[in-house]
Specification:
Helix content is 34%, strand content 14%. With 493 residues, it is of the alpha/beta class. It has two domains: 2-60 and 383-487, Aspartate Aminotransferase, domain 1, CATH 3.90.1150.10; 103-381, Type I PLP-dependent aspartate aminotransferase-like (Major domain) (Aspartate Aminotransferase, domain 2, 3-Layer(aba) Sandwich), CATH 3.40.640.10. A hairpin with a 4-residue loop joins strand 2 and strand 3. Helix 5 packs parallel to helix 11 and helix 12 packs parallel to helix 14 (472-489). The longest helix has 22 residues, at 384-405. The chain is globular. 51% of the residues are buried. The chain binds pyridoxal-5'-phosphate (PLP). The site of pyridoxal-5'-phosphate (PLP) has 14 residues, from helix 6.
């Protein structure tokens, strides 16, 4: 299928001349963007500074800022016509490709018919879409509430958990990111996102089961083609000592912080995204969910980043943990860049919301449903989940080879096209690579034509989560670019 994608969207004969000396050669692309005729960079920067919240300035964070003008599949063009390989997908959001022709056609078709009505009326697109979406869910996860963002989805999931369980207390994992609504700031457990304000009443965080940087972890912990370089006494992944220790921490949180024998629910990403592509010991989530249920709680999987085939082996990240959650939240890739999100749960839990009115003006609008439906079709028709498995594994193996020669690559991890590279001063101390050094490597990567993300508590993890249509050729190019950026940083070139 990757070959099909490659033939359809790329031409191996069209090559972009390398504009930087010693730069790896970018794979070809036949698509011609329109010429940019808008505001120049200086005016744009000035307007951004004078009219947007200062808090948004840090997002335009390249030293030489990037002004994106057009996108097509895995490619982006800046205002000057320079092409980039988008290996971050607008923060894991452009799932099937920028302006994907089928999704574009669905959006255009719907735009000409009906933009908006509300869910108080019947319109077929909504029913058709939720039936299609729930056909992808295991168990009795059959009821859908459509909203507009991941934060809204998690807010609703928390409300549902509290209503259904009759208990206010919620457990989350340290290093998790679940959104920035006032309610969710307390669940998001990264102090970089916190103000000196009271948030998170009733929310408790257990130790993050991070096999690389956590207290416990070893060489069998992860469900990934690449393991940590840490040693452990476990003989195999069957009896994971690190997993046992992290579960004991969870039991302690329940014992000491929650009303006796009770919990409202627990949130977990299947692989932590903003936290730095952190994967848990294989059995952790399964055991944690059982404990939560034994205490009357509801188990919530945040699939905002890991859903829709991105992890390759499975359609949903939680499947790799061998669990069926009670509530699943999804956003980002669900709409390929169109703002939409969903909460999916069982009919029994969904009933908890019926005691009072609950309404969302835009959630599940006709445009969202048309787009969401086309995205689901494209993932299947183009074998994108399978592509994530194949291309992602190739990528992770390539990064692991690179790690052998670069002491500053502390850890390579992930699954499918959800990839993290943790950068350190040296592997023994694991001291995070300083922000200025990260920025230097990152800027060079961009100048060489590849866009990647950064994250993790220390900002020292390169996060690589491209549109799921990328090819092996794109991965090889990214590996070449990353190697060149590392060599330039360490003065080898
Ligand atoms: C795992 C996860 N959950 C929730 C959210 C919040 O989504 P949104 O920014 O759409 O509110 C994010 C956003 O990055 C996320 O990564």
């Amino acid at each position: 299928m990757a070959a099909m994608i490659s033939r359809r969207y790329l031409s191996s004969t069209t090559r972009l001349a390398a504009s930087v000396k010693g730069a790896p050669e970018m794979p070809g692309c036949d698509f011609k963007p329109v010429a940019y005729k808008g505001l120049n960079m200086e005016e744009t920067v000035k307007l951004r500074k004078s009219h947007l919240f200062p808090s948004t300035q840090s997002y335009a964070y390249y030293k030489k800022p990037l002004m994106i003008h057009q996108g097509h599949m895995q490619w982006l063009w800046d205002h000057a016509g320079k092409r980039y390989l988008d290996m971050f997908a607008g923060i894991v959001t452009v799932s099937v490709g920028h302006c994907h022709p089928k999704v574009l056609a669905a959006a255009e078709g719907q735009l000409k018919k009906l933009w908006h009505t509300t869910s108080i009326y019947m319109y077929p697109g909504l029913q058709e879409y939720v039936e299609k979406l729930t056909s992808k869910m295991p168990g009795n996860l059959k009821n859908v509430y459509l909203v507009n963002s991941g934060s809204e989805a998690n807010d609703l999931a928390m409300l549902l958990a509290r209503l259904h369980s009759g208990c206010y207390d919620i457990i989350g994992l340290r290093s998790a990111y679940h959104g920035t609504s006032p309610n969710l700031l307390g669940l998001t457990a990264l102090s970089t996102w916190h103000y000196n304000l009271p948030v998170g009443f009733g929310i408790h965080h257990t130790m993050n089961p991070d096999p690389y940087r956590g207290i416990w972890g070893g060489k069998y912990c992860r469900d990934s083609p690449v393991q940590t370089t840490r040693n452990c006494d476990c003989q195999s992944d069957k009896a994971c000592e690190a997993g046992n220790q992290y579960i004991a921490q969870l039991e302690d949180v329940l014992r000491f912080c929650c009303p006796k024998g009770r919990i409202g629910g627990m949130f977990a990403e299947s692989i932590q995204g903003v936290g730095g592509t952190i994967q848990f010991p294989k059995t952790f989530l399964q055991r944690a969910f059982k404990i939560i249920r034994d205490h009357g709680g509801v188990c919530i999987s945040d699939e905002v980043q890991t859903g829709f085939g991105r992890t390759g082996e499975h359609y949903w990240g939680f499947e790799a943990h061998g669990v069926v959650p009670d509530i699943v939240t999804m956003a980002k890739g669900i709409g390929n860049g169109y703002p939409m999100a969903a909460v999916v749960t069982t009919p029994e839990i969904a009933k908890s919301l019926a005691a009072a009115s609950h309404f969302n003006t835009f959630g599940g609008g006709p445009l969202a449903c048309a787009i969401g439906s086309a995205v689901l079709d494209v993932i299947d028709e183009e074998g994108l989940q399978q592509n994530c498995a194949k291309v992602g594994t190739h990528f992770l193996e390539g990064l692991a080879k690179l790690q052998e020669n670069y002491e500053i690559i502390g850890d390579v991890r992930g699954k499918g096209l959800m990839v993290g590279v943790e950068m350190v001063k040296d592997r023994k101390s694991k001291t995070p690579l300083p922000a200025a050094d990260m920025a230097e490597i990152w800027e060079t990567t961009k100048d060489l034509g590849v866009l990647i993300g950064k994250g993790g508590y220390y900002g020292n993890v390169f996060r690589i989560k491209p549109p799921m249509c990328i090819t092996k050729e794109d991965v090889d190019f990214t590996l070449d670019v990353f190697k060149t950026a590392l060599d330039r940083y360490s003065g080898k070139r």
